[in-house]
User: Which sequence fits this backbone?
């Protein structure tokens, strides 16, 4: 089952608004008022049939990085598919827009769909770069303008989140598991759901967010909270101590086994039974009885060395007596490098002393305000963590809370449009363009090239002049070994034109696409910028248009 097959669910937030299911919050009124007031003014001024081209792109990569993962496309397509103002939307607009708006405009809005729009996009999950439009829309000016804010909100956070997650994955390495624990800290419920979805896209292995698991078919995982441990203060509180032996089926007293192991472990781990917490022991025994095949315990409630590891090992050995293998521990405070090494050492000692080799392989989960830098630092120090649980800094994108995707008109009725700015970075790339990625013989992406849509695509083995869009002296000849045309038509004549990948396939695409990037573009400190260029033809076109549009000042 994937998210497209899920129908209505809790709270009615995700509703079937059309042929495809989408978060019910995503609807035509989820926009800025100015889109609708502009639509009226366009309509009044007879621009209803003007044909526009808009580019959706960002100007800077997030997190001081040199790449961005494009995500959110499927949601944009669902939005186009279901775009329609309901009667209550129209009634609301009638009350809300300034007085004097002609009735025919509301009739026009009531019949408006996105069926005349064509949407081109880069594949979801692909690495993308500044100024190369990730989505390009063609169609009647009014409708394409009306889509701006909603498309931006669907792409900006999704891409930021997928990029953040991909960066965590890069620093953690491919063998460490990464779990998203951020729902409690996310920017509201919808932010939490998007965070879970797009952190999975970016390379996380699962989420603690149960609704995200249901909606997006993401693996849901988790341990338990400190409250579970602190809810017990003595073994006397245990209402049951019995657990069925996995093989024999005979009921045995798990607490008794654990207490016996505590005595034996005392020498091995150099901890006295008196100094360890009895309440913690009781909590772990009861948790093990509830989940004998999935026993994973939080060990830092009182003291990792003097209590948590000791009690965990006793309960895990007790479970072993009854034929079960515990899974591992979670550490949620203190020096995670030191404590994870200490835990691994303790497990190795127990494995040897009690002849339980699987103890060497127990999973060590670490959490507590982890970010990219913490993981890098832990890697430098050396640690034995198998899995990071990451919440706050992942979902809030601590290092950069927004991706600055923008949506700019680049052509109207076949005439290119340019937005000038004192800040060269902000000058838009005019006209309807195509984008190509040129690869070297070793399979690495060399440069992204924008051309006018009337130009022939670059050809393999043929020299192409690639120019910096604004700095005249910066140019290079590139002989590509492979040329990738970046845009596909995803939406045309009211239909989705591509077979949409599953979330799993988009997640795989992220890793495949990242592999095409040279390591120096991906390193965390001072990465090399990836080159984005324009053809000679487009360069001259931009600069001619710039001169035509820039007013000539007068000095007096
Ligand atoms: N070895 C390490 N190297 C670098 N950073 C670490 C290391 N171990 C833990 N950290 C980070 O240091 C910070 C410690 O934060 P803080 O001082 O609030 O936690 P704590 O005191 O261990 O926890 P608590 O207050 O819940 O007992 C966390 O962000 C954690 O991820
Ligand atoms: O630290 P994060 O990356 O956000 O990961 C999620 C955190 O949420 C939980 O506890 P919570 O923070 O609610 O309480 P605690 O810090 O006091 O354990 C968990 O124990 C983690 O610490
Ligand atoms: O399952 C966990 O361990 C978990 C879930 C959410 C937040 N912190 C931890
Ligand atoms: Mg915390």
Assistant:
């Amino acid at each position: 089952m994937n998210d497209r097959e899920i129908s209505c669910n809790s709270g009615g937030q995700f509703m079937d608004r059309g042929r495809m299911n989408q978060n019910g919050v995503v609807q035509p009124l989820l926009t800025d008022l100015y889109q609708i007031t502009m639509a009226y003014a366009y309509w009044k001024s007879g621009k209803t049939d003007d044909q526009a081209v808009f580019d959706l792109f960002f100007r800077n990569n997030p997190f001081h990085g040199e790449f961005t993962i494009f995500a959110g496309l499927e949601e944009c397509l669902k939005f186009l598919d279901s775009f329609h103002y309901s009667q209550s939307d129209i009634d609301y607009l009638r009350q809300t827009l300034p007085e004097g708006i002609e009735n025919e405009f509301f009739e026009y809005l009531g019949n408006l769909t996105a069926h005349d729009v064509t949407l081109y996009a880069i594949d979801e999950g692909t690495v993308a770069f500044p100024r190369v439009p990730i989505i390009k829309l063609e169609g009647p000016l009014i409708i394409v303008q009306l889509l701006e804010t909603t498309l931006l909100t669907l792409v900006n956070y999704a891409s930021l989140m997928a990029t953040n997650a991909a960066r965590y994955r890069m620093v953690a390495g491919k063998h460490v598991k990464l779990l998203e624990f951020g729902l409690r800290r996310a920017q509201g419920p919808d932010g939490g759901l998007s965070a879970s979805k797009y952190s999975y896209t970016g390379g996380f292995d699962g989420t603690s967010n149960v609704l995200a698991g249901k909606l997006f078919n993401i693996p849901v995982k988790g341990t338990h909270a400190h409250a579970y441990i602190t809810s017990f203060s003595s073994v006397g509180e245990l209402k049951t101590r019995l657990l069925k032996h996995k093989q024999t089926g005979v009921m045995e007293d798990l607490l008794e086994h654990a207490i016996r192991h505590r005595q034996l472990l005392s020498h091995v781990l150099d901890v006295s039974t008196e100094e360890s917490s009895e309440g913690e022991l009781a909590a772990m025994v009861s948790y093990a009885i509830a989940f004998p095949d999935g026993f994973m315990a939080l060990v830092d409630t009182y003291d990792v060395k003097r209590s948590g590891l000791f009690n965990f090992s006793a309960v895990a050995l007790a479970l072993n007596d009854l034929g079960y293998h515990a899974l591992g521990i979670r550490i949620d405070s203190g020096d995670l490098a030191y404590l994870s090494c200490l835990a691994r050492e303790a497990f190795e000692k127990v494995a040897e002393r009690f002849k339980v080799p699987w103890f060497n392989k127990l999973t060590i989960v670490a959490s507590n305000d982890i970010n990219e830098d913490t993981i890098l630092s832990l890697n430098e120090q050396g640690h034995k963590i198998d899995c990071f649980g990451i919440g706050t800094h992942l979902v809030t994108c601590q290092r950069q809370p927004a991706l600055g995707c923008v949506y700019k008109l680049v052509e109207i009725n076949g005439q290119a449009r340019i937005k000038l700015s004192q800040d060269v970075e902000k000058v838009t790339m005019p006209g309807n363009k195509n984008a190509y990625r040129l690869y070297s013989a070793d399979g690495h992406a060399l440069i992204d090239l924008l051309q006018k849509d009337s130009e022939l695509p670059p050809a393999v083995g043929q020299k192409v002049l690639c120019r910096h869009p604004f700095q005249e002296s910066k140019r290079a000849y590139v002989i590509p070994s492979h040329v990738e045309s970046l845009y596909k038509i995803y939406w045309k004549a009211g239909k989705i034109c591509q077979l949409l990948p599953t979330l799993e396939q988009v997640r795989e695409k992220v890793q495949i696409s990242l592999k095409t990037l040279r390591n120096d573009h991906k390193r965390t400190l001072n990465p090399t910028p990836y080159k984005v260029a324009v053809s000679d033809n487009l360069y001259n076109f931009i600069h001619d248009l710039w001169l035509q549009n820039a007013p000539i000042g007068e000095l007096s």
The pocket of PRP (ligand 2) is lined by residues 181, 184-185, 226, 332, 367-370, 389-392 (CB under 6 Å). Residues 1-19 have pLDDT under 50 and may be disordered.
